[in-house]
């Protein structure tokens, strides 16, 4: 049912038609209508602010991957890099802040938002906060890729790095508590305990369809918002399998996504190869773009090649 709805909306949006406008009746929220609301009576397709562009990302069929693996199923990816700041976390950032505004807990121009983030949630909060008039401080593990730190600073965010290897996730939370004691009018945007985080996917995404070197996966704790009773199956994918899938998607489908997207791509193959899934359509989500991971292990081989080419001059 959910997959069918994803496909239906993907078609309605006219993916590949060259226009984000849609026609016909479509139920959308009054407060955050998204791309479908951009079709005005004059036929204009212009957003009044950047948060209206969150959601309604396109779907792509990975035909070459299925063909090369001899898989008799349709492999579909939902391309979240098409979000305004190129990540599925844009959805969560908007809902977390809007939920807090609805409860009258924060005030533009007065409240400073603080969040623990490994990158993408913080980047999402950064642009939503900027649009709405909030200052923002990101508390991050020191091991987070430099690309994300650079982007956050470019967006005007104060970045505080914490050596999580010494105190783990608790060290990040302790630093947040310290900020609350030192500053006035601070509100913590807590993606790990606030139900508004998964609520973003119930409201929007759902109506659209161990140790590793993959950034953003497995922070070392189970967030309160995770309902494990909803998990049907856990599939193990090695770091090497995910990296190999990354290079396949780049070679066969022209994709360059985040490292966790390749883990999902590998799981997509494993599930699609099962006999009971022959002829079915299977959808996964590619969570963010690859530009924020250029200094990670995923791109190490081509980075070294490019550096060596430049050193020759």
Automatic annotation (TrEMBL):
Keywords: Pyridoxal phosphate. CDD domains: CBS_like (cd01561). Belongs to the cysteine synthase/cystathionine beta-synthase family. This is Tryptophan synthase beta chain-like PALP domain-containing protein. Pfam families: PALP. It comes from the Eukaryota. InterPro entries: Cys_Synth/Cystath_Beta-Synth (IPR050214), TrpB-like_PALP (IPR001926), TrpB-like_PALP_sf (IPR036052). Its cofactor is pyridoxal 5'-phosphate. PANTHER family: CYSTATHIONINE BETA-SYNTHASE (PTHR10314). The lineage of its organism: Eukaryota, Viridiplantae, Streptophyta, Embryophyta, Tracheophyta. One of its GO terms (biological process) is sulfur compound biosynthetic process. Residues 50-208 form the Tryptophan synthase beta chain-like PALP domain.
